[in-house]
Amino acid sequence: MAIDRILKDEASEEKGERARMASFVGAMAIADLVKTTLGPKGMDKILQSTGRGQAVTVTNDGATILKSLHIDNPAAKVLVDISKVQDDEVGDGTTSVVVLAGELLREAEKLVAVKIHPMTIISGFRMAAECARNALLHKVVDNREDAEKFRSDLMNIARTTLSSKILSQDKEHFAKLAVDAVMRLKGSTNLESIQIIKKPGGSLTESFLDEGFILDKKIGIGQPKRIENAKILVANTAMDTDKVKIYRARVRVDSMSKVAEIEGAEKEKMREKVQKIIGHGINCFVNRQLIYNFPEELFADAGVLAIEHADFDGIERLALVTGGEIASTFDNPESVKVGHCNLIEEIMIGEDKLIHFSGVAMGQACTIVLRGASHHVLDEAERSLHDALCVLSQTISDSRVVLGGGWPEMVMAKEVDELARKTPGKKSLAIEAFSRALSAIPTTIADNAGLDSAELISQLRAEHQKEGCTSGIDVISGSVGDMAERGISEAFKVKQAVLLSATEAAEMILRVDEIITCAPRRREDRM
């Protein structure tokens, strides 16, 4: 009895078998949850928050789904984490990571049941993962030298990434958008300079890529609607002090005329500030905060376009692309960097007026304007496009490409199987299990498309015994198809990240032999 009292009341611990069961079951449940979103025929999930307004998200991005879940099971949290990391690191493959890790655990559970020590399983998995990675490395294609081919590779990757998303109907259109946008980045993976503006209305096919920068604002009244050779000062400063507005301050005056004097002084102060700003030799002033009527009038008289309340990402990005800096004091004009662009004008998108900056200093900047039926569609389109942009920018920096459609998994599974036959001892069982887990990804792709997965996977396995085979699952025709002909490719970096993250996560959960939950905090009675 004395031993039980080490932990506080209500703290629970589960040891050995039970702990392992709990972590396996939790992890597999999470994997099964996102499993149906994998592949071109994957379905979406609706996530409804219990907060105010019951916000609804419709998505099939694995990371987005898992991020929104509140999970109690500790092992499941590990899987949520790897999908988040996959999302941050390469952008795509968030579902595959979780499915693979879940399958590895499912296989490991069977091995643990026949009394194989987890450490043995782990070292087997390690060997298998290394072998699988090398198998892929031998098969990658790198077309960096040949611009034409490389571009078609990028198009294929973009199409493949988008085909499992909401944009799959217009994937040609969006693949082109994404490739154009990423090509403009000239190899930097900084997606900041690609701005995505969502405007409800129209259809998804009306989305377009714009060379310049678009600020989601209207041009004020009585100001020039169009400026050429613009010099832009981007600022974050208060332009609303031409009236007396000093909070909780008391000013004692003996007549109304004194109040007017104070107001006059304020106005003068404002006028001086505006003069200073105009003194920078600018003809466009973008401010993050409000601009009152009086300074706006002064700007309009000087022929300077003043834009107020530009949203914050907008203004940071504007400063970035025009090559200016965000200023907040105007006393020494020579130290302030002013941005440049060739033309500022007002454009209409749907019902809204926006301000368009074209010919900006930073050539890699561009804006993608998404149109769509509703906010949910737009949000999902943005997520899908973001995945595609991430993958493409990663591919430009690491230009190795593999085929898609379950082909890489089958290649890896074949090599891993051969390794298992050569390896003596109990490890070989774990290595074999690894190969079975790998073929779970093509199986799931086939299942989601409502095909007979067992039949297809065995056909695929037979195909892959041939040298230089390019077969994968073609969900459109519902059979084994040639992936090279279909132009279904994926970035090697994504596949590698999936393989390594999943193995490490499975390993981590396998090592668990005890779960200790600490006692909940008691709320003291405050009464």
CATH architecture of the largest domain: Orthogonal Bundle
CATH fold category name of the largest domain: GROEL, domain 1
| Percent in helix | 40-55%
Strand percent estimate: 15-25%
Kindly report the name of the CATH homologous superfamily of the largest domain. Answer: GroEL-like equatorial domain
Structural category is: alpha+beta
Oligomer: single chain
Low-confidence stretches: none
Largest sheet: 7 strands, mixed
Mind telling me the CATH class of the largest domain? Mainly Alpha
Number of strands: 19
Shape: globular
Overall number of domains: 3
- The rounded Rg comes to 30 Å
In DSSP terms (H or I, runs of 4 or more residues), the helix count works out at: 17
Task: Determine the mean pLDDT.
Answer: 83
N→C terminal distance: 36 Å
Subcellular location: Cytoplasm
GO cellular component, one term: chaperonin-containing T-complex
Pfam families: Cpn60_TCP1 (PF00118)
InterPro entries: Chap_CCT_beta, Chaperone_TCP-1, Chaperonin_TCP-1_CS, Cpn60/GroEL/TCP-1, GroEL-like_apical_dom_sf, GROEL-like_equatorial_sf, TCP-1-like_intermed_sf, TCP-1_chaperonin
